Structure formats: C-alpha cells, structure tokens
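Dear U.,

For the methods section draft, I wanted the exact inputs and outputs in one place so we can describe them consistently. I've listed the two proteins in the order they'll appear in the manuscript figures. Please don't edit the token lines directly; just add comments below if something needs changing.

First protein:
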Amino acid sequence: MLYEICDRCDMKTTLLGTIPYEEFDYQTLLDAVRHYSQPRQKISRLLAQGAIVRVKKGIYVMGESQRRRTYSREILANLIYGPSYISLESALQHYGLTPELVPVITSVTTGRTRVFSTPVGTFTYKMISMTAFSIGIDRVELEDGRGYLIATPEKALADVLVADRGAGITSQKELYTHLLEDMRIDPNGLIELDPSALAEIATKYRSRRVKLLADLLSNLRHRRGVF
C-alpha cells in the first residue's frame, strides 16, 4: 500500500506529524495509523523502533528521534492516574516554597495510593478524601493552550502536613521549626500564604495540624514574619 511507504519517510512530517502534542493517548495514536492495513502492527513497530514510548497502557510520548519539544511530565501526571492533581512536594517546588529538587512527580487522588515507575520517571499518587480533594485546586496554563491541575500553595503544604503523620507536633513553635528546619520551607513564601484558605482546608480535612498551621500564619502576619 501507498501508506506503507511512510515507513521510509520522515515521520515528523508524515505519520507522527499528525499528532499535535508530545504526550498522547492510544486513540490519538490509532487515528494517526488508521490508513495502514495493519494499524496495531504499525504501532508495535513504532514502539520497537523507539519512535514512540509507552508511558503506561494507553499513554504515550514521542521518542527522542521524533520529539519536537520537551514533553510535560505535569500533563502526564494528570493523565496517568485520575482523578488527580499535582500536590505535595512537587507543588511546593513549583511555587518555590522549598529548594529541594523533586525527581518524583507527586499528586493526590481520590483513588488508591499508587506508584507508577515509567520510562519517563516515577509518578506517585497519595489518596485523600473526596472532601479534602475538592478544595484548593488551580490550573497552570501552557503556551500551547493546554494546562494541568495543581494544588494551590496552601493546599500543597496542607497535604504534606497531613501525610507526615510521624511528626509529633502540638504547638505553633514546634510547627514553625518543623516547616523551616525539617521541610526547608522558605519563610518569605510561608508568610505569603493565606491563613483563611488554610482554615477552610483544615475543616475539609478535619485536621488539627492544618488548623494549627492556619493559626501560625495568622500570628506570623500579625508579627510581620517574626515568631
């Protein structure tokens, strides 16, 4: 068939050039090879050639030889397991609240806690309740018009505190020390957080520790950052 000649063509301008983004699902891929006599075998050949990479079942990225731009691990995080949005350490790093480099993309979900080790990195998902999940969500817009879901800075910090059940924190002073010394939270960024938003998140989580954080931030603002 005429379309089989494309095996010897520049796939960036022919076959894979019909896929607009570096991250795509199985249906998009199937549409791109629909004119082939054996589309599923064509997909297998593309995988074997490294022209595309399977991140997990049904989710792909362009292979290095076909890549036009860097793929978004944040978009992949939203796609791999859902419902979910980026939070915890990854979101804190995104907002510049912590200097720590986070090689793992961390998210929260209403599904089971999961870890996905993929050819493009590790993605972890922490289960939280639906009431806590539904608050504190933002959307980051990309230049191409797409976007991904991420926790607000207040929600990301609350998610970390709730997940860190081992820390026996009972006072604002202990919490402040934990945030700055153990978590290395930027004190200037910390004081910019909204205490009222954290108080609302605390009610959704029913968390005394998050409420303690809201009270701490109120005191920091009153004292102009001095504790």
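Second protein (the one for the lower panel):
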Amino acid sequence: MIESPWVLWLGAWAGSAVLLAALWFDQRRRLDATLVDVGWTLALGGSALFYALAADGNGSSRALAGVLGGVWCARLTWHLLKDRVLPGKGEDSRYAYLRAHWGDRQHAKFFWFYQAQALAAAALSFPYLVIARTPASPIDPTIWPFVAGGVAVYALAMVNEWLADHQLARFRANPANKGRTCRQGWWRYSRHPNYFFEWLVWVGLAAAATPGPGGWWAWGAPAAMLLLVTKVSGIPWAEQQSLRSRGEDYRRYQRETSAFVPWIPRAEAR
C-alpha cells in the first residue's frame, strides 16, 4: 500500500493525463471532441478506484471510496454516452464553437484543454483520496455520523440527478415539445436541477471525507464544482445555447425559474 497522499495523487493525475492524451489523439483524427466529457468522468472515477486499491487506509474505508466513485462514474458515463455520443448528433456545440474559434491552432489548444480536464479530475478526486486513507472503519462511532450523513446526501443527490435527467429526456422525446422549454418535474423549480444535484453529490462526498486525514480540505471539491457549474462551463454555456435555440420562451423561463437551487416558481409561471 502507498502511504504518501502526494504519491497517490500524482499517480491519479498521471493516469488521467494519459487517458485524456489518448482521447485527444482520437479527437484529432475524427475532429470531434464530444468524448472529452466521458474521458473526464472516467479519469475521476478511475482515480477513486486507484485510491481504493492503493491507499493505506482501513479496508472498509477504501472499499467505500471505490464504491462511491464507481457508482458516480458509471451513472454519469452512461448518461453522457446515451445523451451526447451514441445518438450520432455530431460534435457537441460547445466544442464545435471552440474548434471554429481556434482555427489553425485548434489541435494545440485542444491538447492543453484536454490536459486541463485531467488536472481538474485529479483535483476533484481529493474527497475519494481522503476517504480511502481514513484509518478507521466507516462504522466507527467517532466518524460514523459524518460518513452516514455524507453518504445519505450523496445517494439522495444521485437519485434526483438521475430523475432530472430522465424528466428532461422524456420531454425531449416528444416531437410536440420541439423548440419548447421543459417545465416538468424538477425543471419547474430550477433551470439546472441536474447541476444542482451534481454539486450536492460533492457536498455529500466532502462530508463523508471530513473525519479523514486532511478531511477539511475535501470541501474544496464542492467549492470548485460550484464555481465550475455556475460561472465557467456549466450554466453559462447551457443558457447561451438555450437562448439561441428557444429565444423568448427561454427568456420567460429565466424570469420565472430559479437558475440553480430549486425554488418555488415566480408568480408569472403559475
């Protein structure tokens, strides 16, 4: 077993970098970067499994890290493949825009973009690293409240993220809804419930990691995820695309509905 957290973390980063480099070669050949989201997910889930196998924590704690990372990775990978890759829609609009914007520099720019995804995956894997290095069992009375509470939040968030994705997919599957905005289920109360529940997953992971060595640092993961989805690559991109495709219908939805945290719709929606 590996005792040094830095050796473990560098190993996870190296593995992520190799995977994303391979996917970069694939996008260069096909001129389609859509798989980068799947690669990021696999890199993060793979990091959790690596920690579960290689860290020096309690066996049950290492197993918990592997299960939490594996379940998260499997669900999101399947969702991304089913929603963005397998239908054969062509390159995701975000990456098509970047390809056009970068022009002749696209291959070099995409290489560093892919490596940034590898670094982000390694950075966000910290809660899994802490859980896998925890010397006590998850059912130890001294840490059980944190672990149980964190796993409960994680599970609740995972179920509702799946539900939000399912509600949106069912709405889009109806041809009569083309050009309209989904206001069903969780989408009535938040414009981006999938991002909210994804962030909540990381809150649960941080809570479960808190009793571990350096556990308070695990709260950097949900903080970083909150920044990413609300200010960088999540909500801003999604809102721009929705405004382009749905126009005034989506502008009304913006006026009526909370952007992130599910909340009662404004009076205009009732």
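Candidate sentences for the figure legend, describing the second protein: The chain has two domains: 1-133, 136-270. The chain has a mean pLDDT of 95.

Thanks,
Y.
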